[in-house]
Specification:
Length: 291
């Protein structure tokens, strides 16, 4: 990316100072060939809509040929961007009239974004066909089981009876939520017997231990990737990545990199370490299954 920017600046400075370039406007249209935004972009580029359409097709072909369609503009390779820029210059020399070739960058970003929107819909349809659970909270979508915090919150809000008094030991304070009041007699719902308490406490301990083991698998994966666990683990748990199964689903999702780029707050190096680790994890699981 840095190499690409330096080459563009050097190429621009080498041009004649007497030649006036079209500067990048403060506001650049956010869509290509779509309603008023397309007209705005054509006006900013000072070209007709037919010429703009031809330019967009050249940029689209070059983007598919040279760039990684799974990644956003931010994570494109600098050499690939240079080839992309050279291809467009050969087939549409008028791009040199624009400062730093800003229309090409704008259109390429939109093409990559539109591709991501299309792939996201295809992935959702595939997940529905496979019967994969897909949950959505108020702020983020996640894969696999819902996060522990949301599960505990929903259980406490839907409970039909309160647990033991706060003065009782904490080991007996875990109760399963009962959604249907008619499924239990009122006496049992409000005053469970001691035997029932023991039968419900034991599974809750087992479930808690199982959840901790699953989370430890994700934590060990992050340690193997040399990632800061305290920073990355909470973000993965928020997405529902709490066990090896959910981690494998994430690792084998098509176009996962662009989705992770949108929902995770990572540096470029951390993002690279995570994606490489997911690739290794997916390959190892395929070898185990003999695929």
């Amino acid at each position: 990316m840095l190499l690409y920017s330096l080459l563009r600046k050097a190429r621009t400075s080498a041009r004649s100072k007497d030649e006036k370039l079209i500067p990048k406007p403060a506001y650049v249209a956010q869509a290509v060939l779509k309603s008023a935004a397309a007209i705005t972009l054509c006006q900013q580029m000072d070209i007709s809509q037919d010429v703009c359409k031809a330019f967009v097709e050249i940029a689209r072909h070059s983007t598919q040929a040279y760039l990684d369609m799974d990644s956003s503009w931010r994570y494109q390779d600098g050499r690939a961007l240079k080839h992309h820029d050279d291809y467009v210059r050969r087939h549409w020399p008028d791009i040199d009239k624009y400062e730093n070739h800003w229309p090409l960058e704008r259109i390429t970003r939109i093409i990559l974004k539109d591709r991501h929107s299309y792939v996201q819909k295809q992935s959702l349809n595939k997940a529905r066909q496979l019967g994969l659970p897909r949950h959505r909270s108020a702020s983020v979508a996640y894969i696999g089981r819902p996060p522990l915090r949301s599960t505990q919150a929903s259980a406490s809000s839907s409970s039909t009876y309160r647990g033991p008094d706060k003065s009782e030991p904490s080991s007996s304070s875990s109760y399963r939520a009962v959604r249907d009041k008619s499924a239990m007699p009122r006496a049992i719902a409000h005053a469970p017997a001691q035997s029932n308490m023991a039968s419900q406490v034991a599974p809750s301990r087992t479930t808690k231990l199982s959840d901790e083991n699953d989370i430890n698998l994700v934590k060990n994966f992050l340690i193997t990737c040399k990632l800061p666990v305290d920073r990355v683990l909470p973000q993965l748990l928020q997405l529902g990545i709490e066990d090896a199964k959910a981690l494998l689903i994430l690792a084998t999702q098509p176009y996962r990199n662009m989705w992770l780029d949108r929902v995770l707050e990572l540096t470029p190096i951390q993002f690279k370490l995570l994606t490489d680790g997911l690739n290794t994890f997916a390959t190892r699981e395929r070898v185990k299954e003999g695929l």
